[in-house]
Specification:
With 441 residues, the protein is of the alpha+beta class. Helices cover 43% and strands 22% of the residues. The strands form 5 sheets. The protein has a 5-stranded antiparallel β-sheet, with no helix packed on it. It has a 4-stranded antiparallel β-sheet with strand order 7-8-4-10. The two termini are 58 Å apart.
């Protein structure tokens, strides 16, 4: 590396001169750096637009599906009765009166015993006669009350029962056994091996089915407290604290408010994209990063064309119109009225099957934002590649400028060295001349 002696001989500020010369040499690199900054701003702006367009595509695709228009709401007038409905369920109103609640089959045994007392007689086995008529022999292990409880509850024995030793006083327990499932057919008996009475006999609370009257001679029955598919896609359940005589009105209706909210979400998303494009591509603003960008300008035109393409029915009857500023607005009251009057026809104006508004917007937005071959994606990729090439050139300029600075430093060092030598020689000559004898007149 050249060593600069900083104008000691010439009196010049060589460091400043070199810096100024290097600024001139770096002009092409500075221009490249400025272009990189501008292109990065364009890429960032395209990415922001692309993000909004991708969100628009998601909303539009969801609303373009016929199933989106099958949404329903289900409600009950009483906490004692609940109702659920799947998408596409038939709208209906039912008056429900509880006439029976599903219960498990319970058996409480009379005699008390300690947990360690043997309660199975001379054998460790007991017989379970279940509701299906097939007896099962249960081995209690040691014949104690605790052994009997554990054997009944052992999943490996598949008894379908739950046993509990209920403490009635210190060291004294009574056995309570109930079916895991509810229903009138869940009855069972437990006897000693050979048929003898277990624990002094028992008291039974019989299992029961749930039932509910809909009036007009229609009664629902179920082994559980849920009546499935009472009407296509509609199920009714009784609460755990429901009682005979409780009444409720259950209503299943089209989710008009929910669908209107989705339509509004689509309109808002479309307006957001249009506003973002207009702001970033404003031809009257010198700072608009996408000013003159053909990709976003074409996207804007395509989106507007998808709203009211030639030959299609106006959306005004469904509450969607354009404002003077070129945006869309939704009159939710008009939309809800149209949907209530003709659900199928209204859905066709939006869905894929009817080449509707949401389907058209989805097609345009997906074409632009697709992660693989979307037009915005391609524009972003292309400009990003250009930035990479320019950054490579900037790095090459770094190396080139470093070499140029080294050359200039060497040249100015050589100049200073030469001038120093010349000054030294000049001083020597001056000294020699001064030492010559002066001539007399």
């Amino acid at each position: 590396m050249a060593v600069s002696i900083g104008g000691l001989a010439s009196g010049l500020d060589t460091a400043t001169i070199i810096d100024q010369l290097m600024q001139l040499e770096a002009v092409p690199q500075t221009r490249l750096q400025s272009r990189v900054s501008s292109e990065q701003l364009v890429v960032t702006s395209l990415q922001q637009v692309n993000s909004k367009v991708a969100s628009l595509a998601t909303k539009a695709e969801a609303l373009a599906k016929a199933s989106a228009w099958d949404a329903v709401t289900a409600k009950s007038s009483s906490d004692a009765v609940t109702v659920s409905a799947s998408s596409g369920a038939t709208p209906t109103t039912l008056n429900v009166t509880v006439t029976g609640v599903a219960k498990t089959h319970q058996v409480g045994f009379t005699d008390t015993a300690a947990l360690t007392d043997v309660v199975t007689g001379g054998s460790t086995l007991v017989t379970l006669d279940r509701y299906d008529g097939s007896p099962v022999i249960i081995d209690t292990g040691d014949g104690t009350l605790q052994g009997l409880v554990d054997a009944i509850n052992d999943e490996a024995n598949d008894t379908g029962l739950r046993a509990t030793a209920v403490k009635v006083s210190d060291g004294s327990y009574q056995l309570l056994v109930e079916s895991l499932a509810t229903g009138a057919d869940e009855d069972f008996t437990l006897t000693l091996d050979g048929g003898g009475t277990l624990l002094g006999g028992n008291t039974v609370r019989a299992g029961s089915n749930a039932s509910a009257s809909l009036g007009a001679g229609i009664t629902l029955t179920s082994t559980t407290n849920t009546f499935s598919d009472v009407v296509d896609g509609v199920s009714i359940s009784l609460a755990s604290d429901a009682e005979v005589g409780d009444t409720a009105t259950v209503t299943v209706a089209r989710d008009t408010a929910g669908i209107a909210a989705q339509v509004k979400g689509l309109v808002d998303a479309l307006n957001a994209v249009l506003s973002d494009i207009d702001l970033k591509s404003d031809s009257t603003s010198s700072t608009a990063p996408l000013r003159g960008d053909g990709t976003v300008r074409q996207l804007r035109n395509n989106l507007l064309s998808s709203v009211f393409p030639g030959g299609t029915t106006s959306l005004a009857a469904y509450g969607i119109q354009t404002t003077r500023s070129g945006r869309l607005e939704l009159d939710e009251a008009t939309f809800k009225e149209a949907f209530a009057a003709d659900p199928t026809g209204t859905a066709d104006m939006f869905t894929t099957d009817g080449n509707g508004f949401a389907a058209r917007v989805a097609a345009v937005a997906t074409t632009a934002s697709d992660a693989t071959d979307g037009t915005l994606t391609a524009a972003i990729t292309g400009r990003s590649s250009g930035i990479d090439r320019m950054e490579d050139s900037i790095e090459e300029w770094d190396r080139r400028l470093a070499l140029r600075r080294t050359t200039l430093e060497r040249q100015f060092t050589a100049l200073e060295t030469a001038m120093s030598q010349m000054t030294s020689q000049s001083s020597w000559l001056a000294g020699q001349i001064a030492s010559l004898p002066s001539s007399s007149s």
